[in-house]
Each structure stands twice: as structure tokens, then as C-alpha cells.
Amino acid sequence: MYGIWNWKGGVTKTSSTLNIASHMVADHGLRVVAVDFDPRSTLTRLAGLDPGALKPSQTMLGALLPEEYGAISARDLLREAPWGGHLLAASPDLAGAEPVLAELPGPHGRLRRALEEIREEADVVLIDGPPRTGKLAFNLMGACDGLFVPVALSYASVTSLERLFKTVRIFCEYEREVPVLGVFGTLARPTRHARETLVGLLDQLGELVVDVAVPNTVSVEDALVDGLAAWQLQENSLGARAYTELTNRVLQRMSLAGGVA
Ligand SMILES: Nc1ncnc2c1ncn2[C@@H]1O[C@H](COP(=O)(O)OP(=O)(O)OP(=O)(O)O)[C@@H](O)[C@H]1O
Ligand SMILES: [Mg+2]
Predict the structure, then answer these.
(1) Which of 7, 12, 23 to mutate to test the pocket of ligand 1 (most atoms within 8 A of CB)?
(2) How far is ligand 1, taken at its centre, from the CA of residue 129, in Å?
(3) Which listed ligand is nearest to 15 at the C-alpha?
(4) CATH class name, domain 2-256
(5) pTM value?
(6) DSSP per residue over 134-159, as a string?
(7) pLDDT in tens, 47-73
(8) In the structure, which protein residues have their CB atom closer than 6 angstroms to any atom of ligand 1?
(9) Calpha distance 31→10 (Å, rounded)
(10) Per-residue model confidence as pLDDT tens digits over 184-193
């Protein structure tokens, strides 16, 4: 299980989860479950669902808090998604889990426990996280065997990385080890600023930076309108090519970290 997470908003966590998941299915024949673990529920909306109309018993919230909603197996919540794999949906009600989790014992191991139910169903589980720290983000870290961090290639986005690493370090110290397996540039524009930002990122993080940056391109954005990966809209588009390569690198890093699943 792997998380795509950055506490910063709008850095393509959701788009990258969807595109990488889609390439894992189409190019590598893997069974992939993407977990929407953000109350904003973008990944769920992209699958054509109306998140506001979903009951807790139809989303990850139910599986996360059996005390509140009765025993719900994540396996029963799997839905087919337009990008080719399966989805565990979210709704805005997920935000309400934060204070409830704070009162429960072992609050950060909840997601891991809930996702154990789909171990047999999936070769890879990718979790799309919320753009903030807190109990949900800590549950994501508690569930993951490693994190991948999308970073928009702009100054503001890169400077926020320091806090991200600090948060992960604190989690590792107090809870469990969760390695950052890769940081990848996104929304890259053909500007000097983006190039210099990438060089700065490489200086700062070295081999942690994946050597594929995803360009800011229409193919990714337009495909998302139909909940699709860029390759499904246009096979040889810039976005499709970038995500093909990025997925290969992500899978390499996952297998070095102990394999898929
Ligand atoms: N490669 C790309 N080129 C152009 N636009 C993109 C690309 N990837 C994503 N986008 C657009 O950027 C916006 C932010 O993407 P996305 O929702 O995936 O980010 P996020 O990090 O999940 O955001 P949030 O923090 O709100 O969850 C969306 O409007 C999406 O359509
Ligand atoms: Mg998102």
C-alpha cells in the first residue's frame, strides 16, 4: 500500500493517483485499488459519483469507524472506475472522522486495518491523501509501505517540502516507519523558473527525486473531465508519455521497497 501525499493543495495528488493507477492496470496488468482518502472527494467525483449523496456505509468512512457505522468490509465497497481499476470512494463526511479518531485508541492504524480486507483483491493499493496534516493524513501514513510526493515545480510548492519531511519524520519517530520513496515534479511548464526549481529540488533531495517530471498539459486536464487518464484520451500525448515513464519508476521504487501489494 502506497500513499500519494503532500500537505500542500493542488499539486496533482489526485490526478497523479488516477494516472499512475491507470498505467499500472493498462501497461503492467496489475489489479489496482485507488483509495479516495480526502473529504473533498475529488477522486470519487472523477469516477462519476456524487460524493454528497453517498452514505458513510458506502464509503471508506464506514470501514474506518465500525463503532459508528457497523462492520463494513472495504471489499464490499469496491467500485469499478473509468480509468480501469477499482475505487474506494469518499464523501465530505470523512472530515467528521477527525474528531472521532482523536477519541479512539490506536487512531492512526485504522485505515491500515480497514484495507487489510482488500489485500487479496489488489496487487497495488494507492491512497490519495488530503491536502493537510491531521488524523486522516496520519492514517494514510499508518497504512502505507511508502509515500510518493508530487511537487508542483514552483518556488512556493518546493519550500513547503521542508514541513512535509518534518511531519513524516515525527510520524516515524512516534508511530511507525514510513519511507518517502520518491518526490516527483508536476505541473512543469517550459520556463526557466520551472527548470531552476527542478535543479534546486535535485540539489536538495538527490536520488529521492524521480527523474520524470509531469508537464502542465492539456491532455491530463482534459482527460480528467471524463475521469480518465491522459493515455485514454490521447495515447501518445505528452501527459500519457510522462505518466507511462513515471509509473515505471514508481513501480521500480515500490519493488525495491518490498514489492507491489
Ligand atoms: N499535468 C497536468 N497538466 C495540467 N493540469 C493538471 C495536470 N495535472 C493536474 N492538473 C489540474 O490541476 C488541478 C489540481 O490537480 P489535483 O486535483 O490532482 O491536485 P490535488 O493535489 O489532488 O489537489 P487537492 O489538494 O485539492 O486535493 C486540477 O484542476 C487538475 O485538472
Ligand atoms: Mg486531491
Answers:
(1) 12
(2) 13
(3) 1
(4) alpha beta
(5) 0.97
(6) SHHHHHHHHH-SEEEEEEESSHHHHH
(7) 999 999 999 999 999 999 988 898 899
(8) 9-15, 38, 40, 42, 131, 187, 214, 216-217, 220-221, 224, 239
(9) 27
(10) 999 999 999 9
